Structure formats: C-alpha cells, structure tokens
Amino acid sequence: MNQEISKNNQSILIVGAGMSGLYSASLFAELGFQIIVLEKRPDPRGIGAIAKGRSINFTLSYRGLLALSKIGLKELAIQKAVAVHSRMVHLKSGGVSKQSYQSTESSGLYSITREDLGKILLEKADLNPNITFQFDVNGIEIDKEKSIAKFQTPKGNFQLTSDFIIGADGIYSSIRSSIQKNCVSEYSQNYFDWVYKEFTLTLEQLQSSGLDFNTVNVWGRDPALLIGLPNSNGTLTCNLIVPKTGPLSSESLESELEIHNLVFQNFSRLSPHISQITKELMEHNWSGIVTMSTRPWSFEDQMVLVGDACHAVVHFYAQGLNASLEDCQVLAEQIMKYPNNRKLAFVEYEKMRKVNTDALSELSLQNFRLLISNSSTVKFEAKSRIEGFLSKHIPSIWKTQYSLVAHSNIPYAKVQSISKRQSKIWKFSGLFIVQLILGFIIFSKRLKNQFIGYQKS
Ligand SMILES: Cc1cc2nc3c(=O)[nH]c(=O)nc-3n(C[C@H](O)[C@H](O)[C@H](O)COP(=O)(O)OP(=O)(O)OC[C@H]3O[C@@H](n4cnc5c(N)ncnc54)[C@H](O)[C@@H]3O)c2cc1C
C-alpha cells in the first residue's frame, strides 16, 4: 500500500507516541498539519499499560505546564495531578527539615502518573480529525531523501509518505539512526553508574510513618538516595537510587536481609513497613539511568528529533519531560517562523535547544550530587533558608537555581550563568558568613532535639 497522508495540507509522520509524540501531534494538528503517529507498542486504551522499567510518575513544572496550556490541557493535567507544596528532607538523626516551595502562579509543582498524562494527551489527539494513529508498528525503515517510511503491523506491510518526519521515539531512536546514516554526526551515550528501583507506600502507610502527602520526600544518604513522590490515588511512589558497585550498591543488595538492613538503618521512619518494602524491592529489577547527547538533530528539511530522541538527562531535576515538551513548542515556533524554509527552521530549532539541553544535563547531575550528599546537611538547610529569604524579599535580584529551573522558562543555559554569578556574589558579599552562623544555630537546635528525643526514649 502506498498512501499519501494528505494532498492539500502539509503532512507530518510522527514516530513514537510517548509524551513528546502525543504532544507534538496535537500541537502541529492545531497549526493545520495532517498527522499520522506510528507507535511500536499496542494501543494503551483499555489496557492501562505503563511503560515497563520507567518511573510511574513525573513532576510537571512551569515549562511543562506552559507547553500543555498551548493545547488547552494545563487545567486537566493539574486536575489529574497532586500539587506538591514543599520538600521534606529526612535527616540522618531521624528529624526532618521542611523546605516550602514559594507559592506563586508560576511555582506550582504537580506530580502526575505517566498513565494519566499519556491518557489525556492521547484522548485530546484522538478527538482531532487531522490525527491518525497506527499502533503495533514494527521494523520502520526510512528513505531519508523522500520521507518515506516502510513498516510492518499485524495487519501487513505499509508504506507512508509525508512532507517530513518527527522522531519522537525516545532514547533508542531509530529516526536518529536514520539521520546519522552516511552523515557527519556526534553521538554519546553513557550509562550512569547508579541504578534505581521503585516501591509504593499506601496512604495508611504514609500516615502511620508521619509523612506529609503533598510533598517531595527526600532521604539523601550518600551512597543511597530515596525520593518519594505522591500519586493522585493517595499512594507514594518511592525511587531508591544506589551505585552499581561498592559496599552499599545494587551488587550488595541482593538478599532480603541486606535490603531490610538498608531500610532499617537509613530510612528509619519507614521501618514499620519494612517487610512490604523489602518484598517489593526484591520483586523488581534495577533500572539503568542513561544519558545521551547527539548532533545533528535533523536531516535537510525531511527529519527532525524531539524529546529523549535528541537528549536524555538524569532525572534528578525532574525536567526531562518538561524540556521535551518545550522542544516541541520551539520546533513549532520555528516552523511557523520560516514557513518556506523548513531546513532553516530545523537548524534554528537545534541552535536554540541544544545549548540548553546540554546545560540541563549538567544541572541535573549537579542536583543529583546535591540531593545525595548535601540535602540533609546544616550547610544546605542554612543556604536554602537564606536563599528563600532573599528570593522572597528581593525576587528581582535573587532567585534560587531550583526556582529558575522549575518555576520559570528562562533557558537552562541562562539559568546556569545566573547561578554561577550568584555563587560568586555569595562568596564575595559575606553571605557565606551568614550561612555559617545560621548553620551553627540549626546544628545546635538539631543537637538539642536529638538530646530531648534521647531523654524521652
Ligand atoms: C525514573 C525517571 C523519572 C523521571 N521523572 C521525570 C520527572 O519527574 N519530570 C520530568 O520532566 N521528566 C522525568 N523523567 C524524564 C521523562 O521520562 C522523559 O524525558 C520523557 O518521558 C521523554 O518522553 P519522549 O516521548 O521523548 O520519549 P519516550 O517516553 O521514551 O517515548 C518514546 C516512544 O516512542 C516509541 N518508540 C520507540 N521506538 C519506536 C519505533 N521504532 N517505532 C515506533 N515507536 C517507537 C516508544 O514505544 C515510546 O512510546 C524521568 C525519567 C526517568 C527514567
């Protein structure tokens, strides 16, 4: 079968119906393009399938919400999500340090399941007569000069022609491979030397452990990190991250006893539920964390990449999805800006985005180091409090790196340079002395609380 998608309007073949593919489908259809989406997995409707090995929830922040507002889905996404108001850092001593997120229009942070976000994006796209889906697609072969895609489905072999192809097919993108074929390109893929597993706590378990619901719970215990995010069904998904090798690592955590000891010694608040946590962790495999960088992101005016297909970052700033949706928006803007020169639009899109997704990659690694080793220290708490004060009282002068990343759409590379400038100001203005003094006060308070707790027990 040889099918022209559209003879009148421009047509786009989108490969991949993950969040980037589904979002682009609606975005470009609303701009008047005819869209066909090819997805290798079966249609998720009715099955409730969740991508295996991937985290079950995301945090959506300003960038993602702004992107969703462009296709009228912001409010619906918020309805399906849980608003997260603060970060609760669990200290080694057993105490907690609560860091509130500022509450302004742009500073909302929402935890939403992959399934719910996927569902609302798919339902929205499905209502649009300009969008067609083909699931169960296999063995896609691309003729890159003519934007022809050949593929198999359970119903037979097909061939589709379009004006251009968007590769939204994730980190192992086949469209990226087609772009790179016979062309000068750069590509690097790194397996991070930490891995993760997830387990879930029920609402009752949450409450009996004294955990707040509308909060991100963080246990930074170098060399282990545990992050808990709430779900709209009242549960908490916990992401346990450990190194691949070493005395405390995925290698060493093989028996029930070792996992039991890890939880008991490091996450004491969860001890009442230790058997269920241990059981769940024993049932799951460790998942790898992969980062990827590539260039070019496009071929002529025929193929272009979005989302994880062109950049994959570690998930410790919770921005991979937010940045992917931002990509699609910038791509659409450039295509509309250069309606008669799509090749230039693709080049400009890459120029605008790559520098920022490279910066996001660095920022995400930096945040990982901060979460794992610093988040429960007095130094970190003192700095957060001072920065919180400054950004509340002189917001035009001082903004925390976190709020610039999560609560603004300032390009990530600019966030990096603002942060570097603020670090210098911190050092040379004497603010670090205020941090030392406040750190000492916090330390004394923590010590006093520990002593009172010790006396009570
Ligand atoms: C543990 C973890 C937690 C995370 N948490 C957050 C968070 O809180 N906030 C955030 O912003 N980001 C988060 N991320 C990042 C986020 O998951 C990704 O950036 C985002 O899902 C990328 O979406 P995508 O559509 O580009 O790629 P994918 O989600 O990988 O989608 C690709 C789609 O293409 C399909 N496909 C692949 N190959 C083919 C083919 N040959 N033919 C047809 N279809 C194909 C796949 O089946 C899939 O449906 C997290 C990531 C991880 C691993």
What does this structure look like?
It is a single chain. This protein is of the alpha/beta class and 457 residues long. The chain has three domains: 2-85 and 106-188 and 292-366, FAD/NAD(P)-binding domain, CATH 3.50.50; 189-289; 377-449, no CATH class. It has helices spanning 19-30, 62-70, 74-80, 114-127, 174-180, 203-208, 256-266, 274-283, 320-337, 342-374, 378-393, 401-406, 412-428, 431-456, and strands at residues 2-4, 11-15, 34-38, 57-60, 82-83, 86-90, 96-100, 110-113, 131-134, 138-143, 148-153, 156-161, 164-167, 186-201, 215-221, 224-230, 236-243, 287-295, 298-299, 303-305, 311-312. The strands form four sheets. The protein has an eight-stranded mixed beta sheet with strand order 7-6-15-16-17-14-18-21. Helix 1 packs parallel to helix 4, helix 2 crosses helix 9 (320-337) and helix 9 (320-337) packs antiparallel against helix 10 (342-374). The longest helix has 33 residues, at 342-374. The model is unreliable at 1-7 (pLDDT under 50). The structure holds flavin-adenine dinucleotide. Residues 15-21, 38-41, 54-55, 58-59, 137, 140, 168-170, 174, 196, 307-309, 315, 318-322, 324 line the site of flavin-adenine dinucleotide.
Strand order of the largest sheet: 7-6-15-16-17-14-18-21
CATH topology of the largest domain: FAD/NAD(P)-binding domain
Radius of gyration (Å) = 24 Å
Helix content: 40-55%
CATH architecture assignment name of the largest domain: 3-Layer(bba) Sandwich
Q: Could you name the ranges where pLDDT drops below 50 across 5 or more consecutive residues? A: 1-7
Distance separating the two termini: 76 Å
Mean pLDDT: 90
**Overall body shape:** globular
Ligands bound here? flavin-adenine dinucleotide
Estimate what percentage of residues fall within beta strands.
15-25%
Domain module count = 3
By helix and strand content, what is the structural category? alpha/beta
**Count of DSSP-assigned helices:** 14
CATH class of the largest domain: Alpha Beta
Number of E strands: 21
What's the CATH superfamily of the largest domain, by name? FAD/NAD(P)-binding domain
Largest sheet: 8 strands, mixed
